[in-house]
Amino acid sequence: MDIEIHRGPLDLTRRVEDLEKQKKILQSACRRAGEKIADLVKEEKELKDTIKKLEKHFMKRSLI
């Protein structure tokens, strides 16, 4: 004889499962955000380096 267990929104097991799913989703979103931040920091450094090179180039030209 099979007993069917109804798991409603107040069931603690279901609540735990829902929270675990939410945790995985949030962890994934945080990882993606961290990767994006790292990419932006790298891009910022590259842009700063480019600006310094251009400033040096134009400073040399203005001295001539």
Sheet having the most strands: none
- Straight-line N-to-C gap: 96 Å
Oligomeric form of this entry? Answer: single chain
In helices, the fraction of residues equals: over 70%
Which residues form runs of ≥5 with pLDDT under 50?
A: none
Mean of residue pLDDT values: 90
How many DSSP-defined strands? Answer: 0
Overall structural class, as computed from helix and strand content, comes to: mainly alpha
Order of helices and strands: H
Describe the structure.
The chain is mainly α and 64 residues long. It has one domain. The chain has one helix at residues 12-63. The N and C termini lie far apart (96 Å). The model has no long low-confidence stretch (mean pLDDT 90).
Task: Please write out the topology.
Layout: H1 12-63
Task: Looking at this protein, list some descriptive labels.
single chain
At a glance:
The protein has about 60 residues and is mainly alpha-helical. It has one helix spanning about 10-64. The N and C termini lie far apart (about 95 Å).
